Write the structure tokens for this entry.
Amino acid sequence: MNTSDYIIETITVLGTAAFALSAVLAALDKQLDIFSITVLGIITAVGGGTIRDCILSVPVFWALDISYITIAIVACIIGFFAFPLVQLGRANKLYLYIDAVAIAMFAIQGANKAWEMGFGLPVAPVMLGVITATGGGVIRDVLLHRPSLLLNKELYAIPVALGCIFYTIIYLFLPEYIEFGAVAACSLIVYLRHLSIQKHVCVPQWAIIKHH
Amino acid sequence: MNTSDYIIETITVLGTAAFALSAVLAALDKQLDIFSITVLGIITAVGGGTIRDCILSVPVFWALDISYITIAIVACIIGFFAFPLVQLGRANKLYLYIDAVAIAMFAIQGANKAWEMGFGLPVAPVMLGVITATGGGVIRDVLLHRPSLLLNKELYAIPVALGCIFYTIIYLFLPEYIEFGAVAACSLIVYLRHLSIQKHVCVPQWAIIKHH
Amino acid sequence: MNTSDYIIETITVLGTAAFALSAVLAALDKQLDIFSITVLGIITAVGGGTIRDCILSVPVFWALDISYITIAIVACIIGFFAFPLVQLGRANKLYLYIDAVAIAMFAIQGANKAWEMGFGLPVAPVMLGVITATGGGVIRDVLLHRPSLLLNKELYAIPVALGCIFYTIIYLFLPEYIEFGAVAACSLIVYLRHLSIQKHVCVPQWAIIKHH
């Protein structure tokens, strides 16, 4: 395994764990038990990729590599006992950045999977990238009766969509630079999430629909 | 392309746009931004057919023909800027009729796809017709935390189901008249929706469960 | 058809009916009409297995054998007219036990289907068993805006998961006793549900996350 594979695997592990931990954080004000949290954590971590693989009609990724489920379970158990730490502002911010890297990785992974299968080019890679990155979180919010992150004024789905569109444009016009494109698209997503987390950049007023 | 194909394509475009516009209307009292509305519009427009294609294990229709996604996006952007017009009573009624034609078309399209694949006859065509026509709207309502249209006293799912059952009966007993059956089934759905929209016909009292 | 097949078929019929009836019970305080209840009953009865079959990329079970849909419809219609009887304490408890047998059967059926396809062993059988048994109820609760049974302090998903894990261990280490393992796993699920129904055993206090 070379350095690049090692980096990707590390980020995948951290990303899956970050998604699972988001279920622990979401559960804090719901008095959930550790088992419910673990179920929710697994759904959050693998939900998006599962929808993507159903749409692509390929075997789901967590059936091919069981480590995703294992990581999600371990992250939920650690998160359950460590949650007072997670609640601290700094840990929360760390979590937001891990989550940002995770959605960036998963978005480009999802878009890339559609490209490699030549599936519905060039629209489907963008759709599937967004679905992979946000699907699990959407199901988590539905099950917890929380406002959906898809409909949030915070920049969450927009960075993911822009990153996937950027990646798709590189694939279309500069396919020989696609490795660079993947890194740039991930960086773009993480940077836009950073603006939202650190600078509280959000959707401008003119873009919000108003009821008269 | 002959006249019949041209009519079907026109109605498909209008139907996809109508579904997408329903997300704009649904967003009016939620202060959503244009990006969230577009995401919601795409989900509403292609959600039902996506579930149908996952169940049928065939490639999703919007991967084979990207115009569906394009139409949904354009409809959402136009709807966002034109929504004061859409709010007017007459525009709203026009919208309800376009939506009625759209669910009729999509229901029969969904039922027909199951028939052509010989999939789970004769029950699956009815199920898949209803899923195609209502699935997107159901997901939209779940994401917006609105009461589901499936559980509405208004006639929405009933016309769709009756239309699909009628189409299935024609396919079973009079397959040589199936083109006529498709038109008649669509007309039945639109007529029942018309009764609901114009005459406020709804579910009778005896059919509503009561808690003692 | 031998005795064993006859027992399995009887339990499948009762289980499907129990799932469908749960929609009638859930509808009691929502003033739903018979048609909405039937739609909800069908979704509850076949939802879990449908998600499982989409993940497994196999034709959905209700397309191969239409009796599932028929049973769900008949159970909803009977339940609608008989609901004052269903409300009585004893009928309700009977219902909970039929439901317990149903989730046990459906969980092991789901796990077994994954094993027979050699799909994602040994994690996927547990996941798919839980999805088959609980998926329909989860969708029902989402559509009714009720707290999800997955996140309930009552023992519902835990027995199902433990039963599937037990079944998976038998399959891994004692495959020659798998028929016995299936019966034992089902019994375990029913017994744990019995403890929850009769003795009100629930998740212990230490396992519940607390917000400081």
